[in-house]
Amino acid sequence: MDNTKALTVQDVADILKIAKNTVYELVKRGELNSYKVGRKVRFTLKDVESYIENSKKIQNPGRKENTALSDLYTDTFGGLAKVPASNEFIVCGQDLMLDILTSYMGKYCKNISALRAYIGSYSSLVALYNGYIQAATTHLWDGDTGQYNVPFVRRLLPGIPAVIIHLTCRTQGFYVAKGNPKDINSWEDLKRRDITVINREKGAGSRVLLDEHLRLMGIYGSSLNGYDNETQSHLTVASTISRGAADIGVGIEKIASQVEGIDFIPLQKERYELVIKKEIFDTPVVQSILKILRSDEFKSEFKDIGGYDISEMGEIIALT
Fold first, then answer.
1. Which of 29, 45, 131, 260 sits at 20 to 30 Å (Cα–Cα) from 179?
2. Burial of 216 by CB count in 10 Å (0-12 exposed, 13-18 middle, 19+ buried)?
């Protein structure tokens, strides 16, 4: 996709999975670059990618400044490494659905600062285990059981009872060049030597999905062309393929419709879920989160966006 092509407010809302009013608010706060054609606000893909990269910080809707992960909250493994204050509640994960959730928490959770940490599923669960956050989000697929999240929660939170709350389902698959010139259709095609991949960062749900399928096929990741080329978002994976720098990448379906020059090969439905420790389940803030997730007001934020199956949102999936 041409990084200079004009995107409308609705285009950006669709890419970021937020309401149009939120896009205008981001522009007003100076967080999202834009320009005007007459009275119309327009954006470039580069503007949107820059916003996503710059958003990978601990964010507090009630504060004027953001605290960078690298400053206070990262350890040598790139995860969180600071116990939150008693009035802070950190929700960890990369989907922009969580930006909307913490915004609602700012309105309905009294005396609590709702914070966001933008790190992948695996590192989120490790941070939860270490007590650096109160809520992790995950979409990790276990190839041995064919199950999402529960096996990883049990492994990464050993001896800690946890509650898994469903957020949404999304479709994962391959991004390929328009017209699929290399005829890529299944995981088996990764065995081919004429294919170059663009990968997600270690610990991301899409990266784990790829690695699990490689493991089941008896393939080492190091044997794939481009396996070590990592990026931090679905959008960047798709745009990399669009400009011809790679042949294939794993990502969610919705982004494919926002980037020109690529097609999407659907492979499997994934479950994106919220994990908290059982010992805080009955606290006012967690009960408020449940009410928010189950409310018509919150669900209406996603009805016109697409890419989300919210039919089970707010349901308790498992107690581990």
1. 45
2. exposed
What CA–CA distance (Å, rounded) separates 278 from 260? 44
CATH topology of domain 9-168+272-319: D-Maltodextrin-Binding Protein; domain 2 (3.40.190)
pLDDT in tens, 248-284: 999 999 888 878 899 999 999 999 999 999 999 999 9
Question: Class of 172-269 per CATH?
Answer: alpha beta
How far apart CA 136 and CA 129 sit, in angstroms, is 10
Give backbone dihedrals phi and psi of 210, rounded to 5 degrees, phi first. -60, -50
Q: Residue 64, Cβ neighbours under 10 Å: how many?
A: 6
Please tell me whether residue 302 adopts helix, strand or coil conformation: helix
109: helix, strand or coil: coil
Of 79 and 320, the one with more pLDDT: 320
Dist. CA 245–CA 310, nearest whole Å: 34
Q: In angstroms, rounded to a whole number, what is the distance separating the alpha carbons of residues 10 and 20?
A: 6
Residues 116, 122, 126, 129: is their CA dihedral positive or negative? positive
Q: Cβ-count burial of 218 within 10 angstroms (0-12 exposed, 13-18 middle, 19+ buried)?
A: exposed
Say whether 172-269 and 9-168+272-319 share the same fold. Answer: yes
Contact 143, 174 (CB under 8 A): no
- Residue spans of the domains in the chain: they are 9-168+272-319, 172-269
The pTM for the full model equals: 0.76
